[in-house]
Specification:
Strand content: under 5%
Structural class: mainly alpha
Distance between the termini: 45 Å
Shape: extended
Number of domains: 1
Oligomer: single chain
Number of strands: 0
Number of helices: 5
Length: 104
């Protein structure tokens, strides 16, 4: 799956999980909803359904407090920072140099 562009939480959930919870708590998904809706995967699930279950599994892993111990405290101090929308710009410079032409 490529980049996800949507106009809201419901559209994002639909696009990534294939299902939308009845309610959100702020921008949070209730973990009970994930447990109820992604309990068992069908034996003959499509590739899309497998991806959706994998995403739900990762979200359930992240809720585990032991995972949060790996995140530096400054990132957890202000949860509102996770809602900030800023442009992400990555500049990468790759230069090719022939080994016999590089000055020492």
């Amino acid at each position: 799956m490529g980049p996800v562009t949507s106009s809201g939480l419901s559209a994002t959930c639909e696009q990534l999980l294939g299902n939308v919870p009845n309610k959100f708590r702020g921008s949070w998904i209730e973990m009970g909803w994930l447990d109820d809706n992604f309990k068992d995967i069908k034996a003959f699930a499509s590739d899309v359904e497998k991806e959706q279950f994998a995403r739900a599994f990762i979200l359930r892993l992240i809720r585990d407090l032991r995972i949060q111990e790996c995140i530096p405290a400054e990132f957890l101090a202000n949860y509102n920072i996770w809602q900030v929308k800023v442009p992400l710009i990555v500049y990468t410079t790759v230069e090719m140099h022939e080994s016999d032409r590089v000055m020492q």
